[in-house]
Write a structure and sequence with these properties.
Radius of gyration: 20 Å
Distance between the termini: 18 Å
Shape: globular
Largest sheet: 7 strands, mixed
CATH superfamily of the largest domain: Medium-chain alcohol dehydrogenases, catalytic domain
Number of helices: 12
CATH class of the largest domain: Alpha Beta
Number of strands: 18
Strand content: 25-35%
Order of helices and strands: EEEHEEEHHEEEEHHEHEHEHEHEHEHEHE
Number of domains: 2
C-alpha cells in the first residue's frame, strides 16, 4: 500500500512529505487511517539526538484516526473504530503486569528503535527500509500500523483533532498530577514550563481542587493560558536575580507541596527542588539535559523527593478514556490549547511552536 508521510532524512533535517510503501498489518497489528496527529516536543528533540544511521525515519506519536484493517489475532478493536494511538508496552513483563506499563522492560525496542521486534520496518521506499514504529505507530503518515497495546478505542463523537494530544502530551502532564503526585486539595503545586504538558498538569491540579497552583514560564502568553486554568503566573525574567525561589516560597506558604518540571533545564530543576517544602516532591517529565545539580544535604534534611515520570505513570488503555471523560465534563478544558494545521504545514507548525506562538499544534489530514 502507498501512504504519504513526513520523512526526516537525517539528524536535524526538516520534515519532507514523500510517498512510501507501508506493509499490510500482520496478525497482531492494526492499520489506522490517521485523521489528526499532535506535534510533540519529543518528536523534535529525538530527531536532533539520533545518530545518522537511524535515518531516514518517520516520527509522530500522537495519532488519532479510524481503523482500516485489523489482524486476525487482535481482540477489542474493529474496523471503523475511532482510536487514539499511544506508546507501546509488552504487557508481559513484571512491570507491565503490575500496571507500570510506562516502565516496560521492552520500552526502548518497542518505541524508539524504528523497527518491529523482529528487525523489520513497516515503511519502505524504492525497496529500501525506512525506520518507523516510533512509539509503535509513526503517525506522521496518512496510514500507520499499531498494536492492541497502544491503540485505544474512543467514543466516535469525540473530535479526533482534540483527542490526539491525549496520546502523549496531555496524558503526561495530567497523569503526573493525577497519578504520580495525587494531590490533596489543601496542597500546593508549582508547574515549571507552561507548554502543552505543563498546562495539562495545571488543568489536572485544578480538576483535583488544589488550593494553590503556580505556573512558571518566561513567555507571558503561556502564563495567560495558565492563569485561565486557575494558576498564578510567575515570569522569572521579571524578578531580580536571586529572588525567584523566595517568590515561589512566598506564593506557596513557605514551600511547594509538589512541583512538576517540564523544562529539563538543570538550573530550573535545581531551583524547583529548593522551592519545595519539607517532604515535598518534584516530578521530572522533561526530556533534555542528562545531568542536574542537587543539594544532597537539603534533600536528606528536608526529606525531599525528586523522581522521574514516564507518560504520567499512565496506562493509556484506561487513562486516555478517563481524561476524555473529564474533557467532556468540562473539568479538563484542554481543547482551547490546540491549534490545527494541514499535514503539509508540518514545518510551519514546528516553527510556530518553537517561537511560542502556539501551545499545541495538531496536524489534520
Amino acid at each position: 500500500m502507498k501512504t504519504r508521510a513526513a520523512v526526516v532524512e537525517g539528524p536535524g533535517q526538516p520534515f519532507r512529505l514523500v510517498d512510501l510503501d507501508i506493509d499490510d498489518p500482520r496478525a497482531d497489528e492494526i492499520l489506522v487511517r490517521i485523521k489528526a496527529v499532535g506535534l510533540c516536543h519529543t518528536d523534535l528533540t529525538i530527531k536532533e539526538m539520533l545518530p545518522a544511521e537511524m535515518f531516514p525515519r518517520v516520527f509522530g506519536h500522537e495519532g488519532a484516526g479510524v481503523v482500516e484493517a485489523v489482524g486476525p489475532d487482535v481482540e477489542g478493536v474493529g474496523v471503523g473504530d475511532h482510536v487514539v494511538m499511544s506508546f507501546r508496552s509488552c504487557r508481559e513483563c513484571a512491570r507491565c503486569e503490575s500496571g507500570e506499563v510506562g516502565y516496560c522492560d521492552q520500552t526502548m525496542a518497542l518505541n524508539y528503535m524504528g523497527y518491529r521486534m523482529d528487525g523489520s520496518t513497516t515503511f519502505h521506499r524504492d525497496g529500501a527500509d525506512v525506520a518507523g514504529s516510533f512509539f509503535g505507530q509513526s503517525s506522521f503518515s496518512e496510514l500507520a500500523i499499531g498494536s492492541a497495546d497502544n491503540v485505544v478505542v474512543i467514543d466516535p463523537t469525540v473530535d479526533l483533532a482534540v483527542a490526539a494530544p491525549f496520546a502523549c502530551g496531555f496524558q503526561t502532564g495530567a497523569g503526573a498530577v493525577l497519578n504520580t503526585i495525587d494531590p490533596r486539595p489543601a496542597s500546593s503545586i508549582v508547574v515549571y514550563g507552561a507548554g502543552a504538558v505543563g498546562l495539562a498538569a495545571i488543568a489536572a491540579a485544578g480538576a483535583r481542587g488544589v488550593e494553590t497552583i503556580v505556573a512558571v514560564d518566561t513567555q507571558n502568553s503561556r502564563l495567560e493560558h495558565a492563569e485561565g486554568l486557575g494558576a498564578v503566573g510567575v515570569n522569572p525574567a521579571d524578578l531580580p536575580d536571586g529572588e525567584f525561589v523566595d517568590r515561589i516560597r512566598e506564593l506557596t506558604g513557605g514551600g511547594a507541596t509538589a512541583g512538576v518540571d517540564t523544562t529539563a533545564v538543570p538550573k530550573v530543576i535545581t531551583q524547583a527542588v529548593q522551592a519545595l517544602a519539607p517532604r515535598g516532591t518534584l516530578v521530572v517529565v522533561g526530556l533534555g539535559a542528562p545531568e542536574i545539580e542537587l543539594d544532597a544535604i537539603d534533600l536528606m534534611q528536608n526529606g525531599k523527593i525528586v523522581r522521574g515520570c514516564i507518560e504520567g505513570d499512565s496506562d493509556p488503555l484506561t487513562m486516555i478514556p478517563e481524561l476524555l471523560d473529564m474533557l467532556a465534563a468540562g473539568t479538563l478544558p484542554l481543547d482551547t490549547l490546540i491549534t490545527t494545521y494541514r499535514f503539509d504545514q508540518i514545518n510551519e507548525a514546528v516553527e510556530d511552536v518553537a517561537a511560542g506562538t502556539v501551545v499545541k499544534p495538531v496536524l489534520v489530514f
